[in-house]
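Report of the visiting student (M.T.), summer placement. My assignment was to run the structure pipeline on a short list of targets and document each run. The first record concerns CHAD domain-containing protein.
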Amino acid sequence: MADTSALEEELKLELSPYDADLLADLLTDLLADCGLAGGAPRLVSQESTYFDTPDHALARAGLSLRVRRSGRRHKQTIKADGSAAGMLVRSEWEREIAGNQPVLDDDNPVTALLGHRTALLAPVFVVENERRVWNRDGIEIALDQGRIVAGERLAPLCEVELERKGAALDALFALAREIEARVPARICVLSKAERGYRLLAAAAPAPKAGRIRLTPQMSVADSLALIVGHCLGHFHRNLPALLDHGDAHALHQARVAIRRLRSALSLYRPVVRDPRKVARFQRDLQWLAGKLGAMREIDVLLANDDDPEALAPLCAARRKAAGEAAAALRSKRCRLLMLDLAEWIAIGRWRRAAPEAAPGELSLGAFAAAVLTRRRKILRKRGRHLAGLGDEARHDVRKAAKKLRYAADFFAALYPQEREGRRARRFVARVERLQERLGTLNDRVTAPAVRARLGLAPRRGPTADAEKAEQAEQAEQARLLRAAAKDYDEFATARPFWR
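After the run finished, the structure tokens were exported:
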């Protein structure tokens, strides 16, 4: 039997083991309360073995290959990564097979990718799962409780999948809200395959943003949906390490994801006709950024403070800030924010208001050029006479540099020619250098206020002479400011890559 290709659309919610048990007991009644009446769920025991090459070629290409055993039946499934702001939208190829080893012909992407290297495929991890399945009015509801086993490493698996089987998308989100109202459940963009690969790599680096694959043929609306989905995926993929360990690198990437998301909403504001909703998103994202920012401020002090007497109180303050950030990330406010963003991007009123019908009916390329030109103009204006600006005005320059850099990152794929690509990389590098230099300067300027807020004495530095320490700090800030002014001049004279 050949592989059959299909498009899978699902909304996935993550639960704690306790809440998964609670949901298992009440989900049938919950569905009936929602008008989705039916019988008891179908119980299925599953064991899914995931295959890859020794160098994980499939994972690096965004593919997963599994053989799932349910009773005596074996089903082979190949999936391609894909997400849109919390909705998982993935191509998949399925077929029934006779045993527990993959059967690969020429009609699937694994064979096309690996060629003769399919002989290297071997099991890499296993997902053991007890699944309860309800089918109601075009929605398949699957509650999964089990574990992922990768060698000697184990991780629990507790999630509910709402897969579209003919229902409208708003029905999936309505059901997700009903579930969240009864048990704490947050949107999850990690597939079981991604979780397994993460378990294999115990010290995997914090995921970075990566490149957004916009194309000139996209509508303005679809480009925003892709960008927001990309930002939310970046955020969610850093949550496990941030929640479980308070990892500083995951914290940094989660903050970058939020900043990029806020920038995207700001950059697209002229064509998105839903100001109240966008304003609410910005408020909640700013609140969340503030909770994470408190941790980051302490991390900066820990990285730069050479006062041994400050180490213990800084570590204590860091633990407190990490606890408050974790509480915010697990809060109902955050869960609903992420669910609302996912629904707004997928089926929000703004999409029906046709952003492309804005004045001039801009193509995506024209819209991107207009945004980049405007943000460049703002940065050039704010950054003039940089060396003479005060702290607050300099901070405004830094924020302008961030927005321009993120806009350039978002739209760079629209300029694929080799020469354009080189110019884009040079341009972004100059803006990034200016932004980071101003960030370092801002950290040094604000450090005394952060220390005071934490109840710490002023930093002594390597010398006990307070006057000499202050002079050394002022000299370092002056050096950074001169370097930032030079960075600005290099940016200001750089040729825009979008012209």
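The radius of gyration is 25 Å. The mean pLDDT is 90. I thank the supervising group for their guidance throughout the placement.
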